[in-house]
Amino acid sequence: MSQTVLLAEDDRAIRHALERALTLEGYRVTAVADGVEALAQAHRTAPDVLLLDVMMPGIDGLQVCRVLRAEGDRTPILMLTALVETADRIAGLDAGADDYVVKPFDVEEVFARLRALLRRTTPVTAGSAGAEPAKGSPQVSDRQLLEAAGLRMDLQARRAWRGGRELELTRTEFELLELLVRNAGIVLDHSTIYDRIWGYDFGPGSKNLAVYVGYLRRKLDEPGAPQLIHTVRGVGYVLRED
User: Fold this and answer.
1) Domain end point (choices 101, 119, 137)
2) Where in this protein does the record say 4-aspartylphosphate is found (predicted)?
């Protein structure tokens, strides 16, 4: 069965062009013009993925994200935004979005990001993410529990803690943290992380990974506690407790 996309975009030309392109790609598309319609449709039909414009009259895309996440809806959300500043992207992640595409965009990039989000709705199984663990790296138990560097993750429930503090993570943040925890002590290069998390390497000019790592650090770090995610300049990132 075709996967369903709920598209909310107030610009008629962009909305119609995306609706046609997505339909030709094999998706079943419901297209609406604003956030009020998007929320009503999401409540009625439970789409497989949402594609939301950030700047819409009335209820904007960020507010739609916040409402759905507050209701416990974990449907993947891809944002369309003309805002390119890091702070604007962080606002989208904070609202609960899983990924974003900056306008003007190539429709093939939209397709790639949607495919990656939809692949990640498949339940995680032990050993499905990350590079081969080094000796002494954390392992997943039968209950899908993962521990490293003072972090605990329940993969089945999609919950994570640092010490006794539970972390509020988006889908992408959770999967990025899972990849790092599975490979604690191992430096993962940018290409590997892009491939494992997004299923597509967006190239050296992309700031996607740096934005997500920065946001994940903000949620992990605690005053007086060691930093857990370290940058290896020119290579990638590693999770370790110094």
Assistant:
1) 119
2) 53
Range of the domain at 174: 145-239
H or E element at residue 12? helix 12-24
Name 96's Cβ contacts closer than 8 Å, sequence gap at least 6: 65, 66, 68, 69, 77, 170
User: In this structure, are 113 and 152 located in the same domain?
Assistant: no
Residue 130 forms part of a structural domain: no
Adjacent-strand bridge partners of 152: 147, 161
Helix axis angle for 86-95 and 208-220, nearest 10°, is 60
218, part of any domain: yes
Both 115 and 191 in a single domain?
A: no
R_g of the chain computed on alpha carbons: 18
Secondary structure (3-state) at 52? strand
Instruction: Please report, for the domain that includes residue 88, its CATH number.
Output: 3.40.50.2300
Distance CA 71, CA 65 (A): 10
Burial of 151 (0-12, 13-18, 19+ CB in 10 A): buried
Question: Which pTM was predicted?
Answer: 0.58
- Does residue 161 have a pLDDT over 50? yes
Q: How many domains does the chain have?
A: 2
- Which token pair is 92? 């989208």
Q: DSSP 3-state assignment of 101? A: strand
Cβ(149)–Cβ(241) under 8 Å?
Answer: yes
Picking from 9-18, 97-106, 157-166, 224-233, which range would have the lowest pLDDT averaged per residue? 97-106
233 and 196 share one domain: yes
* 28-53 per-position pLDDT tens digit: 999 999 999 999 999 898 899 999 99
Tokens of 89: 């992207």
